[in-house]
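Quick check before the chapter quiz. The format below is the same one you will see on the exam, so make sure you can read both the input and the output lines.
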Amino acid sequence: MIVLVDTSAIIAFCDKRHTLNVQLRDLISDDDNVYIIPSPVVTEACYILNSRFGARFEISFIKEIIKTNFLFEPVKFEDFSRIAELLLKYDNLNLGFADGAIIAISERLGTNKIITLDRKHFEVVIPAGFNHFEILI
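Here is the expected output.
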């Protein structure tokens, strides 16, 4: 099963003090799933990890990428119009580019499964082709 990973989950995954850290690590170690991080999420996660916790956390995340079964999905040209559409439609939520990319990529890949702590956005937005996002944590 294809599962997209959001920035908030990455932050909790990298912060061993986070209450969901162990649960996230257990979930992501499930080899039955394909975990995809949209390319803008990598950039956003690196920025947040470095600014909140320091360069060591950012480097640690990069090293985790090498050790785990994460795959990466770039934003494709056709995704940009969908991202713009989503940002406009949900302008009251202040989605941002990374969340818009997650939604557009999930629709393109045909999955509604996501690992996120950001329920504010992903419980409200309805991805095309689905009734809701299935939040796995």
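If your answer matched, good. DSSP finds seven helices and five strands in the chain.
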